[in-house]
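User: Fold this; tokens only.

Assistant: Input:
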Amino acid sequence: MHLRLTLLTALLLTPLTTLSAVEPSIRLAENGTARHAIVIDAAGTATEAERFAAEELALFLKKITGAAFSIVKEGEQAGPGIYVGHTRRAAKAGVDLAALGEEDWVLLTAGEDLILTGGRPRGTLYAVYEFLDSKAGCRWIAPDIEIVPANRDFAVPALDVRGRPAFSWRETTLYPRHDDPKRISKEDYARFLVRNRYNGGHFNGGSFWLYEPRFGFSERFGRPGSSHTFSIYQEKWQDVKPEFFAMMEDGKRAPRPTGPLGHDFCLTNAELKERVAQQLQQYIEEDRAEAAQKGTPPPRMYAFSQNDTSSKYCRCPECTAIAQREGSYAGTTLAFVNDIAARIAEKYPDVRLLTEAYQFTKRAPKMIRPRENVVVRLALLDLEYRADEIADVLRPLSAPTNRAAREVTEGWAKAIQDGQLFAWDYAQLRTPFRYPYDGTTKILKNLEYWHRLGIDRVFIEQAGIDLSFRPMRDWLFFRKSVHPELNDEVLIDEYVRGYFGPAAGPMGKYYDRLAALTEAGDKSYFETPASVIPWLNSEFYTQVNAWLDEAEALCAGEANAKHLRHVHLERVPVDSGLLHLWHRYAESPAWKGRKEEVLRRYEKNKRMLIQTWATHVHVWVNNGGAAFDGELAALRLEPPAQFVGRNANLRLVGIGDPGPNLVKDPSAAGGQARRFGSGKPGEHKVPFQMKIHDDVAPRDWGSMTLDKDKIPQDEAWHWHHVATAPLTGHCGLWSNVYLWLPIGWGAVPPPSNEMEVWVSLKFTGPTYVKDSRSPDQVLIDQVIAVPPQSVQK
């Protein structure tokens, strides 16, 4: 791909002075000397963002031409000018400044003058970046990588360009580390974001970076949060009635929720609607008072949405009747949200209420439509969450495996007006371990698709700093969410050349291979986890490692230290996938005897990754570092003797679980174990039981029952066979002493998903061990899934 695009990329980056022979042009610099001054409003009304735009323009024009461009007030310049912001010259040239939208930009030539202006608060900033991008070839690939083509005789053709970003809300998950200036400073990362015209303001601290006047602020949600807010609305109410909350299937009212996983409201209760409307108005007033005090714009989007559950909605006759009439519980939700929206519309005409189309509300209702001040955010989960979910999250919506998701999306797009649909998409799988897969193709294609449907706001969730080509995903999202018409191959080529430098050749080959393999296939990725993906084989890892070795060699020398670092970071998901399924590759000629070598490399590069991209030191270096130590310990474990040679996959349990469930135990594998139970008195009992449960089928396999005389009495670790079962993605371990532990069949090896499941348990305390003085406790530290002897080769 990359050689094929060299000419096209070169043409795109060629300074536009080559056009001067066929059309009029303005020469901004000649032989490294500025011919124009940068001019801002003389009346002192220029915003901080407009002044910052002028400074950015001067900075990059100097990098392009070598010339110093002065910044003067309107009327002070002697010759032609580059007019930035709301100037009299822009108005005289016919620009209706008052009519410009918040992010609208205008690039206009008038005589010898160049006018770069736009709406407020961000339009003028975006005009400058659009000019530097489209007319000078500037690219901001990463916080430490920029492309600025030199041109001492920089000229531009006659211009009359007006535009705005394709999406008004552009947000993705951010993972930069901002509390270690030795890595990436807050200032550097904020400039990187604004130069790429990113405006997301909530998830993972977007407002931390951009919510300043000079950056034109960012989009953000008002109180009390960005999603699943129903539970928050009532958390401080002193007098609540049972009728405010959902009626359950048994006809009883649900308990008051204590968090986002609790039951929802009864959405037809008249008194509840009044209380909620009052609470919303209180949130709006508090936000506006705070904004006035700080001198910032108040938020205008308020998340007003269901809790994060799949079935805890109200089943009272009134709520059910609306849902049945509309063919979707989204009808019940929209009727409720519309009622609240109508109550605030006159007093707060600029406020929009956002509600979710999610899980049980994902399908559009037959008749009810959102009011003009309501936005619907569609979030389609993958089958890995629930059997009735429909998205194949690693492939674009245009893929055959996403037919159902595509139909739901287009159903909403047809049902509501342009600008009222907000897309929340996912670009990662919840897997027991990371392995290589591409997320860029679906991001690029989905942005084009959403734009064609008239979707105006987007958020792409891609949790994980160790995803393949993770920084590339961000940059492609930045570019494509502003200009969805840009050619994907050109964008990819620009990124690979800029980010990997001299290693672009082999890294481009690796990317091309990974993208093609990820998109291919006719089954959802939920149905084809890592252990059964046919292309994640020894040959794949051997070829990819050869490309990575070549890339490292090409980045030798201090001048390429950044590029070498980027190659090292890209090894992390590759080595993770290789190590976590090492039993598949251990005997292949390419990998036999090399596990410790790969482990040492994985440890070095992942610790560097954590240091580079962690959002906060205390989150990743302290907590994340400890979890990584446990992962390394697990990878170094060897299966017990009885499982050697049986293609066994070993999982260490005491990693990454909630803190209260973890117990330090020096005798446990990895030094930690998970505790059964919730800590309530009387929960320990005999006989002790465990089984494999599929929570979707639903179906159980086996029932390991241990009476007291079958429980080991030495208070030490022992292996126990739970059951043999065809493991699916919804299988987990259940116990009568509370435990639900997903097995994660992505870690199950071929040739079959019919597996023996063994657990390593330790029993202590008098309930289990005669005359024990230890507290009652059941601990688990390891799980092994192994093919039955009958299918062994």
